[in-house]
Amino acid sequence: MPVCYMIHIKYVCDNESRKLIVIHYINTIREAMDVIQNIDDYLSRFPEEARVSMQMMRTEIKRIVPDVEETISWGMPSFRKNGILVQFACHKKHIGFYPGPSAIEAFKEDLSAFNISKGTIQFPFDKAIPLDLITRIVLFRVAENNDKILKKKKDKR
């Protein structure tokens, strides 16, 4: 959980302190990458409310992409099929869902109820996880990754 804590406080420090905290954040990520073995291990480190929400997301991703590969990348759960599809991470007041910029752009209207940035969606703990939206985003990412593979094969010919 220190990874999330460091993300939150680095924005409220002055320039000199921010530099020290960013360095600590990178060290914390590296430490997390060495320590976290798998997604079950990651989930076990958080309170039940967060754990249940993340497990629901994980179950839905595995339901719609049964052959998805689960990994830990940059200290957070990642789901791969022909490249990374999506990632998520627990933060102090929300779960960050990371489908990438193209998915954010494609689903911008559907995401109007949530805080978003270029490649991130924030699902606050006080709202239900929108599993139908996650399903559509993951299917979009599967198609996008499959298209990239087909394009690479065509380019090789």
Question: What does this molecule look like?
Answer:
This protein is an alpha+beta fold. It is 53% helix and 18% strand. The chain contains six helices and six strands, in the order H-H-H-H-E-E-E-E-H-E-E-H. It has a six-stranded antiparallel beta sheet with strand order 1-2-3-4-6-5. Strand 2 and strand 3 form a beta hairpin. Helix 1 (2-9) packs antiparallel against helix 2 (15-35) and helix 4 (48-64) packs across helix 6 (131-156). It is globular. The relative contact order is 0.12. Mean pLDDT is 82; it is low at 1-27.
Per DSSP E runs of 2 or more residues, the count of β-strands stands at: 6
Write out the strand line-up for the largest beta sheet, numbering strands in chain order.
Answer: 1-2-3-4-6-5
| SSE topology string | HHHHEEEEHEEH
Q: What summary fits the major beta sheet?
A: 6 strands, antiparallel
Separation, N- and C-terminal Cα atoms = 48 Å
Query: Segments where pLDDT lies below 50 for 5+ residues?
Result: 1-27
Total helix count? 6
The pLDDT mean sits at: 82
Structural class: alpha+beta
Determine the strand fraction and express it as a percent band.
Answer: 15-25%
Give the overall shape, derived from the CA principal axes.
globular
Radius of gyration: 17 Å
The assembly state of the depicted protein chains is single chain
Helix amount: 40-55%
